[in-house]
Structures are given as C-alpha cells and as structure tokens.
Write a structure and sequence with these properties.
With 196 residues, this protein is an all-alpha fold. It folds into three domains: 1-77, no CATH class; 79-142, no CATH class; 149-195, no CATH class. It has seven helices and no strands. The longest helix is centred in the N-terminal third of the chain and has 18 residues, at 3-20.
Length: 196
C-alpha cells in the first residue's frame, strides 16, 4: 500500500492512540477490573470516525477506501474469532482454555498467509464469551441474533419498541438482519419511522 494512502490514516489514528492509549496504559488496563476503554472507543467512533470509514459519504460515513479501513484496523490491532455463545456451548473459558484458543487462532492466521503474525504481537488480551457475560451481554455475545434462516428478515426483532412509541431500533439486531447493507437498510427504515 502506498505511503499516500497509509500516512493520513496512520496519522489520524496514531495521534489518538498515542495520546489516549500508550502501551503502558494498555498493559495497566488489561490487568485491571476494567480492561475496555469505552471512552476511547467513543472518541474513535464519534470524533475520528472509525466505525464509518468505509461507509459512503451519502450515508453519513467517511467514504474511505477499503485500503484505508484496513490501515485503521491494523492500527487498532485486533483479531476477532468466531466462538459459540454460552447458551449452546459447553466450553469452560476459565483458566488456560482462552489462551489456548488464542494460540490456535494465531497459528491459523499464520497458516493462511499472515506470516509471523504472532511475532508482531506486542500486547495480548483475550476476551471470551464469559467476559462478555460478566458485563451483561446475553449468552456472552456482544452481537445480535444468529444469521440463520429462522432469525433473518421478518423473523428478526422489529425496529419499533412494543410499548414506547418514541423508541426506534436500528442495527444488526433488528430487521432486516446482519451485514453492512442490511444495517444500512435498517437505519433507513428507522429514519423513515422517525420522520414519517
């Protein structure tokens, strides 16, 4: 990727991360009772616009290329892996299991061409379904209902609150479903409900 593409994105995220998330603070936070910096995520989402980078400007996003979004993801340095939720799994996430799974994930990434991925990790903090459950996420998942036939489209929860007429929901947890296009449609449906 060219320096012309990388430099502005790295600079934008680098400034915020250097200021708000130096390695010493990250290490200290991972060993605390509050390993997640929600204020930093709000800053990255609202002020820097990380969540809307690849979303076209006409839909309220930044209109960035996927390359620019990839640079931002690299700067944020996270790896997400699919795991079963606590309602359907018998996995005991305590002890060494979580770190063992993280090791398997790194090995899989390296086998798929992300050479020396593990060697580049400077700080590692593993978050499991048990951790998400501890902070109130149903079944230990921060995501919405599964993307299966019986939980897609009209079978997904609607975007109107059943009792509060001034509450409208949007996002992957409501109709029509998951994925960026569906979430954008969900937002459009919610906006239409609000504006008439």
């Amino acid at each position: 990727m060219s320096v012309a593409v990388r430099a502005p994105v790295e600079g934008r995220f680098g400034e915020v991360l250097t200021d708000r998330a130096p390695w010493s603070a990250i290490l200290q936070r991972t060993e605390s009772d509050e390993p997640y910096d929600t204020r930093l995520w709000q800053t990255l989402s609202r002020d820097v616009g990380v969540a809307g980078l690849p979303v076209p400007e006409k839909f309220g996003g930044a209109g960035a290329s996927w390359r620019e979004a990839a640079v931002a993801a690299e700067e944020l340095g996270r790896a997400v892996a699919p795991v079963p939720n606590l309602d359907v799994s018998t996995v005991d996430w305590s002890g060494r299991r979580a770190h063992g799974y993280a090791g398997e994930l790194i090995a899989t990434l390296e086998a798929r061409g992300y050479y020396d991925f593990g060697a580049g990790i400077e700080v590692s903090h593993v978050v499991t379904p048990a951790d998400w459950a501890d902070v109130g996420m149903a079944a230990g998942t921060p995501f919405a209902a599964a993307h299966t036939l019986r939980q897609t489209g009209p079978f997904r929860p609607g975007n109107l609150h059943p009792r509060l007429s001034n509450v409208v929901f949007t996002g992957s947890g409501t109709q029509p479903g998951v994925g960026v296009p569906m979430v954008l449609i969900s937002g459009k449906l919610a906006a239409q409900r609000v504006t008439g």
